[in-house]
Specification:
13% strand, TIM Barrel, 355 residues
């Protein structure tokens, strides 16, 4: 959904070990943590359930998270509201996550700032470029970032070409009004990923995972125009739909099943999910139901579920849909990611209401 919010990342380095190949066979329980480095740099302290200050990634791992998603901006500013997440910053964070045993998803926005259904602005450096040059820009930027990751010892398991692009990307040239051109841009990103990391699965990502008609329209046109991709990524935010998840979860489930049936050989992932951090019980239940929907996709083609910025505490980000309490501790809702969570009672606690 539209990200109206704040802050991103600063450099952190670490030695790295490539995640074992066997991890690709397990269900991804993920967290997008693009804000984490800057939260740390501005002095935010994360506390575990025992009230002890601890590395946020370690806390997330204890909650069952096994994968980390990171956004990439092309040439971002240092502005707290919309900057950071440059390729070097993302590489540093990916190294850190991989070193701690997490799998990695990289999310290319192809913009200097937030890209989502409401805004897909070209990077300033590409603003006057022809469509032919934009094809080269997408390829070169993707190839360069992937090469930096490889040099750091990071092999992303998944790579998004575009972020929430139901209307296309790199407007106006890559708008869905110019679908043949959009398909070419997506394919250039795909080819750049595969040139460096043939095992990485390329995701094309839309919002409103409950909207089957939108997904059919988009992916019918993408396939008809020869667009290359491996995985259909979905966002699912009942909060932004202004309804309880129980009103749309069946539609999400049906869409997941339809996508793998309609597009043979493709897989699906819920690349973003979130809910009001003050509504712990409902968030826990929604996360369980979303994971169950993805796990129910036949032949293991439902790859996983990623929470968008669970660590992005409202006191720091002003974002209502984190999964972090006002006390600096993880929300009990995150326990939905722990092994065996489906058999556990839901958490009885609630976070304090937002001010």
């Amino acid at each position: 959904m539209i990200k109206r919010f704040f802050q991103a990342a600063l450099l952190v380095g670490a030695a790295v070990l490539v995640a074992p190949a066997a991890s690709a066979q397990t269900f991804a329980k993920g967290a997008d943590v693009g804000w984490l480095q800057q939260m740390e740099a501005t002095g935010y302290v994360f506390y575990n359930e025992q009230g002890q200050a601890q590395d946020c990634l370690a806390i997330l791992k204890d909650q069952g998270i096994n994968a980390i998603r990171l956004r990439v901006f092309v040439n971002p500013s240092d502005d707290k509201a919309s900057g950071h997440c440059s390729p070097p910053e993302v590489v540093a964070m990916a190294k850190r996550a991989t070193d701690q045993g997490f799998r990695v998803m990289i999310d290319f926005h192809y913009s200097d700032t937030w890209a989502d259904p409401g805004k897909q602005a070209k990077p300033a450096a590409w603003a006057s470029h022809s469509f032919a040059q934009l094809l080269t820009d997408v390829y070169d930027h993707t190839l360069s970032t992937m090469t930096m990751l490889k040099a750091a010892g990071v092999t992303p398991e998944w790579v998004q070409v575009g972020n929430e692009i139901p209307g296309g990307m790199l407007w106006p040239e890559g708008s869905t009004k110019n679908f043949p051109q959009l398909a070419q841009l997506i394919t250039k990103g795909y080819e750049a990923v595969k040139a460096v990391s043939p095992t990485s699965k390329v995701i094309v990502h839309l919002d409103r995972g409950n909207d089957n008609a939108m997904y059919r329209s988009f992916f019918d046109q993408l396939t008809q125009n020869g667009g290359k991709f491996d995985v259909i990524g979905m966002s699912y935010y009942p909060f932004w739909l202004k309804q309880d998840y129980t009103a749309s979860i069946a539609n999400l489930r049906a869409n997941l099943l339809d996508m793998v049936a309609r597009y043979p050989g493709k897989e699906v992932v819920v690349a973003e999910v979130g809910n009001d951090y003050t509504n712990v019980q409902n968030s826990f239940d929604m996360l369980l139901a979303t994971q169950q929907a993805v796990r129910a996709v036949p032949q293991g083609k439902g790859l996983g579920v990623f929470y968008w910025e669970p660590e992005g505490a409202k006191s720091w980000s002003h974002y209502q849909l984190s999964a972090w309490g006002d006390d600096g501790k993880p929300s009990p809702a995150l326990k939905a990611f722990q092994d065996g969570a489906a058999g556990k009672p839901a958490p009885a606690t609630r976070s304090k209401k937002a001010k």
